[in-house]
Amino acid sequence: MSGAPRIGILTYQFSENVGALMQAYGLRTWLRQQGADAKFVNYRPDYVEGGGALRNILSPANAKANAKVMFLKLMAAKQALFEDKAQYRMFQRFQAEKLGVDGPVLKTLADVDAFLRTPAGKFDILICGSDQVWAPSLQFGIDPVYYLAFPGGAQGARIVSYAPSFGKAQLDEGYRDEAARYLARFDSISVRERSGAAIVERISGRSASVVPDPTILLGDYGALAHDPAEPVSQGHIFCYALRSSEGIRDVASMVSRRFGTEVLSPYNPHRRWAEIGRTIKPSPGGWVAHIAQAGFVVTNSFHGTVFSILLRKPFLTVGLTGKRAGMNERARNLLETVGLSHRFVPGEEPAMATRLMDEPIDWDAVAPLLQKLQDDGRNFLKAELMRTNRQDSFV
Questions:
Q1: Is the Cα dihedral 320, 301, 297, 91 positive or negative?
Q2: What three-state secondary structure class fits 289?
Q3: C-alpha distances in angstroms, 152 versus 112, 117, 144, 186?
Q4: Would residue 367 count as lying in a domain?
Q5: How many independent structural domains does the chain possess?
Q6: What's the domain range around 325?
Q7: How many CA atoms are closer than 13 Å to the CA of 298, on its beta-carbon side?
Q8: Is the pTM of this model over 0.85?
Q9: 82-104 pLDDT, tens digit each
Q10: Which residues form the Polysaccharide pyruvyl transferase domain (predicted)?
């Protein structure tokens, strides 16, 4: 190959969600470590966080979609008015400095397609993923951009998915034909969950590799965990709660009493519950550093679980309850894969934490299981880089 392969990534690199930024950081950093010139295509659709456009408001069929649009618009307005501007700037700085996000913001399929026709938009490989980029949204449906379905053909770039998720174990039948049509165009397909591989095979007849989230793919976050730019205390209880405080509040309190240590919880702009312990406002890198320096981690988040494992911290993952219980699947599958199922505490049974918090974790037993996961993802992407090299050698 005459130079480093150029790789364009389409994911949620713009989100103010730490997990989304860390998976974006993991994929790009690992690809760059392999010698690739990897960058994000700066697609930022309004519907993901801003709600997007209202549909025919007189039609009852659009009621749920329009309600979702209005909810997201209200949340976006609330954040614009009341969000901590200093933390917002920290997220923006992380996106620019650590993710290398630059160039004009692209809002629509037409914007992205036009960009991919330019010299700056010439890539050897386009990769979509990770995160739930294949999950149809209530207000928008399937986004062809995240299926790399570009009318202009993207100047012949190889079309590859790395660890996208459909968001749940089944794809609604109304989206089946559209998704199958897009999947037929891919050169190589991988997904994040076994359920995603089953969906791909069922609707398109194609096989999909199951690979880990990019945070696991990279594995080493020392560059962020030991960043001296942000002071971090040591030995605290780090409580990373998303979507609900049910169960996790009780577990964090029990762990705090057991070890006599303060609970620190990172700020969540979508929080609708009273704070757990003391709220802190770290940068994305500072979030990693707080886990690295914690004495114990309590979380109900998949990425909170991932980083507890990667940084070898004693932890408990508390299950979400009720209608949100289906969101526990990712964390539970990961825990099972690396032999740590016993670190899961059902949200309805927080008292289980009493006997678990003192149990040591055998990290030596976890290591080869985690390594196998990483090898699955790395081997998939190395094969794609090799294919690109072989193709280029004949150009």
A1: negative
A2: helix
A3: 10, 7, 13, 15
A4: no
A5: 2
A6: 222-361
A7: 32
A8: yes
A9: 566 777 888 999 999 999 999 88
A10: 17-318
